[in-house]
Amino acid sequence: MSNLRSHLTKSDFILILFLLFIGIGITVWIYYPKSTPASTVEVRENGKLILSLPLSENTKQTIRCTDGGSNQFLIQDGAVTMTDADCGDKTCVKTGSIKEAGQSIVCLPHRLVITITDSSSDSAPDAIVR
Fold first, then answer.
1. pLDDT, tens digit, for every residue of 39-72?
2. Which residues contact 115 (CB under 8 A, 6 or more apart)?
3. What is the mean pLDDT of the segment spanning 71-79?
4. What kind and span of H or E run contains 123?
5. Strand pairing partners for 73?
6. How far, in Å, CA of 52 to CA of 115, rounded?
7. CA 99 to chain CA mean position, Å
8. pLDDT tens profile 17-41
């Protein structure tokens, strides 16, 4: 180890420390919880918004669809879960919980989509294409 120290100059140590701080900074930036704006749960049937609820509100809702079917979902602890549906395949129930903006639960037989949105998603573009 002492042989290695004799070959490293002061600028080498400064460079190593600089790279170490950059690495720590990037790690903290990636893993540090970001403050998220208030999220909203939007329920759409055939593309039409039928219900909008805050993600922070713990509630259980039953949606009666226009085709006569029904879906039940639960908002709890910042996550949305489809708990019951009377459709045949129940893929929407098997989806599990969603908790991030942009995630969706879809029930194709009832044409029902539950999506988590945040307030910044309406104003900020997803991408700019020329």
1. 899 999 999 999 999 998 999 999 998 888 999 9
2. 41, 42, 44, 102, 103, 104
3. 94
4. helix 119-123
5. 61, 82
6. 10
7. 5
8. 999 999 999 998 888 766 556 689 9
36 vs 43: CA distance, rounded Å: 21
Q: What residues contact residue 1 under an 8 Å CB cut-off, 6+ apart?
A: none
Distance (Å, whole) CA 86 – CA 70: 6
Q: Contact 104/115 with Cβ under 8 angstroms?
A: yes
Q: Which of 76, 78, 71 is nearest to 59 (CA)?
A: 76
**Percent of the chain's residues with pLDDT above 90:** 56
Rounded to an integer, what is the distance from CA 87 to the centroid of its chain? 26
In whole angstroms, how large is the CA radius of gyration of the chain?
24
Given a contact cutoff of 8 angstroms between Cβ atoms, the answer to whether 55 and 61 are in contact is: no
Q: How far is CA 79 from CA 8, 70, 116, in A?
A: 52, 20, 9
Q: Let me know if 80 is exposed, middle or buried by CB neighbors in 10 A (0-12, 13-18, 19+).
A: buried
Helices (H), 1-100: 2-7, 10-31, 91-94
Does the pLDDT of residue 123 top 60, yes or no?
A: no
